[in-house]
Design brief:
By secondary structure, this protein is mostly helical. The protein has eleven helices and no strands. α8 runs antiparallel to α9. The longest helix is centred in the middle third of the chain and has 23 residues, at 128-150. The model has no long low-confidence stretch (mean pLDDT 89).
Length: 209
């Protein structure tokens, strides 16, 4: 079927709902998540550039826009489960990468296989672009969980998601992380001050971790 099979498969990302099985005021698809990650990442990259950091924009757009493509094959696995152990995370990644490789071999024309392998690879690594992807991905978890907590959703999974994402972001050494923590997150916490859930306390506990 050629590249048509790839384009056709993108529709499936619109039907995969994140954080399945839990009550949510708002449901988010993997497709919507990927779009938001690209938006966060380009602003984070701009912040890095204002501090003199060189950014490979082509690489950044490739890895951010395609970072969850493998979920077409395995669905969205809840973050606490996915990261419950290093071994499990590695196994999930191996399965995902294997199914992507099988898809490329079966559908993508030979002259484009190398390109697709590069674009659909695991993009989170120690490079500036990989770290920006990691921050942007966790930021969307923060925003999704925040929206639920702000509305009074008391599902513990959203507290866990919010807290763990903030802890992970804080650990990443980038200029944009400092900006997020000092100039963006306070606005978020202030916006959530009227919530039945004590978002300020949860935030302070996460940042003190």
């Amino acid at each position: 079927m050629g590249i048509h099979a790839y384009f056709r498969s993108l529709n499936e990302l619109e039907r995969i709902i994140r954080c399945p099985g839990k009550f949510k005021f708002e449901e988010h698809s993997v497709s919507a998540h990927s779009w938001k990650v690209v938006q966060y990442a380009k602003t984070l990259a701009d912040i890095e550039e204002t501090h003199g950091v060189a950014v490979d924009w082509k690489k950044l757009y490739e890895i951010t826009s395609s970072h969850d493509y493998g979920e077409i094959f395995i669905g969205d696995i809840k973050t606490p489960v996915k990261h419950s152990s290093i071994e499990l995370r590695q196994l999930i990644q191996q399965v995902e990468e294997g199914m992507i490789e099988h898809f490329i071999e079966e559908h993508i024309p030979e002259e484009f296989k190398g390109i697709f392998r590069r674009q659909l690879r695991e993009g989170k690594d120690g490079s500036v672009e990989g770290l920006i992807l990691e921050v942007a991905d966790k930021m969307d978890q923060v925003y999704e969980a925040f929206a639920e907590l702000q509305r009074g959703n008391i599902e513990k999974e959203f507290v866990t998601m919010y807290r763990q994402a903030l802890i992970k972001i804080k650990q990443i050494k980038l200029h944009c992380v400092n900006y997020f923590l000092t100039s963006i997150l306070p606005d978020m916490v202030n916006e959530g001050s009227m919530s039945k859930v004590n978002i300020k306390q949860i935030t302070e506990e996460a940042l003190a971790y």
